């Protein structure tokens, strides 16, 4: 038994040694083959005399002894270079941000203003205004009237809103709604004669109107229910209403005092009624 174990151990060691020898031999063979295929190349430093324009005018003795080169080469370092690499002394153009992208002849000369181009098409002519009778007006606010699906703003006054609020803080009142009610009472669903476009209009149009020879815009301005631009002919009427504290420029014109309550009459009792009927 002992001899068998020794033989087994020796056989294993011999196999390991044989494997190592084979690996070393194969590595040596591979390195030798690579060395044979790629021979070493020696890097040669070119001599300065072999370079045209750089070493042709320089003496080898001067180089070895540390002497100076040819004065012509020292003064003109660009000599001997190809024509494409020669220095070209040209004017440098300014590339400031405000001049970048413009040619030199544009930036060097003052700008000249030219006449504007004529329009390619003729402007659309506005329709000719004509007087028209508009029925069933509905006042949406002071100066804004509705006729079906069309709206008309009275000319000469500024548009107002029905939700406008007037007065001082803590003492405000709905002046826009009050002005709307006053304007409705003035119209009373009467027909208006207004100067509107000939073929009608869509949306909102600004026009002058009259109701029984009375200008509704002037009526609103006189009673303080309108604001007018400075150049409007009704601005003086608005200023007078402001001075008199009328409409928007005054206090709440509504009477909000409490209504006195009427005391209920006392009815006679049932017994008294029976006694009275029994007599």
Going across the major beta sheet, what is the strand order?
A: 2-3-4-8
Structural class call reads alpha+beta
Helix content: 25-40%
Can you count the helices? 8
* Strand percent estimate: 5-15%
H-E string: HHHHEEEEEEHEEEHHH
Rg for CA atoms:
56 Å
What is the residue-mean pLDDT, rounded to a whole number? 77
Low-confidence stretches: 56-69, 71-75
End-to-end CA span: 160 Å
Largest sheet: 4 strands, mixed
Beta-strand segment tally: 9
Which overall shape is indicated by the principal axes computed on the Cα atoms? elongated
Question: Can you tag this structure with a few keywords?
Answer:
4-stranded mixed sheet; 9 strands; single chain
Characterize the structure shown.
- It is a single chain.
- With about 280 residues, the protein is α+β, with helices and mostly antiparallel strands.
- Helices cover about 30% and strands about 15% of the residues.
- It is built from eight helices and nine strands.
- It has helices spanning about 1-35, 60-65, 70-75, 105, 175-185, 215-220, 235-245, 270-279; strands spanning about 130-135, 140, 145, 150-155, 165-170, 170-175, 190-195, 205, 210.
- The chain is elongated.
- It starts with a helix and ends with a helix.
- About 15% of the residues are buried.
- The model is unreliable at about 55-70 and about 70-75 (pLDDT under 50).
